[in-house]
Amino acid sequence: MLATELSKRHWLLILTLTLLTFVLGTSEFVIVGILTDISSSLHMTNAKAGTLVSAFAITFAIATPLVMSATSHFPKRKWMLFLIGSFIILNALCVISTSYIMLLALRMLTAIVTGVLISLAMIVASETIPIAKRGLAVSFVFGGFTLANVVGVPIGTVIAEWYGWNATFVLTTFLGGLAFLASFFVLPNKLRQIRSSMRDQFSLLTQPRILMAFFIPALGFGATYAVFTYLVPILKGMEAPNHSISLILFGYGFISIFSNILAGKIASHNAIGRLRFVFLVQAIVLTSLFWTTNHFILGLANIGLMSLMAILLTTSTQLYLIDLAGIYQPKATGLAASLMPVASNVGIALGSALGGIVYHLGNLMNVTWVGGVVAIFACLLTFLSHRLDQKQKKPA
Predict the structure, then answer these.
(1) Phi, psi of 323 (to 5 degrees)
(2) Is-contact 148 21, C-beta < 8 A?
């Protein structure tokens, strides 16, 4: 009989992996809050400092699946501890970084470590937790990123204001040390190990079903970020007082915590079937902003709903990719686990770019239509995937 309840050991592992993603998320996202401090300290333009963000995202997207494929046979516990140790060293070196080139190189190396650790955390959560509770476990691990945005980034930004941007990396180094200690004592010794070649790994990407599943979260995130990227000018257009914008953004992040909790519930049963309607609702919520932002209170309520819908897809699509890999190429679950984080970065870039094009062509609020249309495409792709799943289950 399969276990359906979580033991104390399970919960300790889930919380440890959540701490790890919180630390990784804080390190990745906090750079946005300290960009101006870095640019003035290193005597460069804000635009040049912004490449630290784009270089991180590009390196993350390209390197993560490559490294996951090349290291799929590594013992997971030792490999994760080595990577967390590397994360600590890289962040400590950022503290003493004195040039743009040095900081850029360190951030790109950190991106590789971050991408691989996130993927490994997802694999460990999905492999060691009872199947009935996988959705809950993975949603908690994803929740580390939400907490990073709500708690870690503001704290890191305040520390930069008080003590300089270097001190923010002292914080991430310290947090990395906590994650290492927790992982050292909690990560299981006997984690599943699969030996496979690079050919086995990348053969997964030749499967049309995997590519379809990849673009579901990419389009889902793209829909949100077509609007979210320009949320500050939208708020200013709503005549939100300048001093209240940071509070509204904090509220947006806080609401996303509940989005993460709901994501786990959606993933618990018929996840892809449920996601079809999630994207449909997301499309309605995003396009509604075109009208509701004419009224301050209605606009804020609509933005709150946008945040609630933003990450409902994460847990379901993460597990879906791993499960599909189990069907089409069981030796490539490591690569499959890396695809959701990569898809999210692709979606963020796609949504921001599409929103930017429409914004510069005319009315700012037209970005809400872009978000709605992209969400409809995500909905259609999810409908198609679900239909193919149902056909596959039917006896020949």
Answers:
(1) -65, -40
(2) yes
Q: By the 8 A CB rule, do 19 and 144 touch?
A: yes
Per the CB < 8 A criterion, the answer to whether 53 and 35 are in contact is yes
Q: What's CA 134's distance to the chain center, in Å? A: 18
Residue 33 φ/ψ, nearest 5 degrees:
-75, -20
What phi and psi values does residue 269 have, to the nearest 5 degrees? -160, 130
**Contact (CB, 8 A) for 321 and 272:** no
Q: Tens digit of pLDDT for each residue in 226-268?
A: 888 788 888 889 988 878 887 888 888 889 888 888 988 898 8
List pLDDT tens digits, range 271-327: 899 999 999 999 999 999 999 999 999 999 999 999 999 889 988 998 899 889 888
Record the tokens describing residue 197, joined without a space: 């070649």
Closest Cα to residue 168, out of 156, 150, 179, 176?
156
The values of phi and psi at residue 97, to 5°, are -65, 135
Specify whether the CB–CB gap between 341 and 68 falls below 8 A: no
Tokens of 318: 């993460």
- φ/ψ of 72, rounded to 5, equals -60, -25
How confident is the model over 197-225, as a mean pLDDT?
87
Can you give the three-state secondary structure of the chain, one letter per residue? CCCCCCCHHHHHHHHHHHHHHHHHHHHHHHHHHCHHHHHHHCCCCHHHHHHHHHHHHHHHHHHHHHHHHHCCCCCHHHHHHHHHHHHHHHHHHHHCCCCHHHHHHHHHHHHHHHHHHHHHHHHHHHHHCCHHHHHHHHHHHHHHHHHHHHHHHHHHHHHHHHHCHHHHHHHHHHHHHHHHHHHHHHCCCCCCCCCCCHHHHHHHHHCHHHHHHHHHHHHHHHHHHHHHCCHHHHHHHCCCCHHHHHHHHHHHHHHHHHHHHHHHHHHCCCHHHHHHHHHHHHHHHHHHHHHHCCCHHHHHHHHHHHHHHHCCCHHHHHHHHHHHHHHHCHHHHHHHHHHHHHHHHHHHHHHHHHHHHHHHHCCHHHHHHHHHHHHHHHHHHHHHHHHHHHHHHCCC
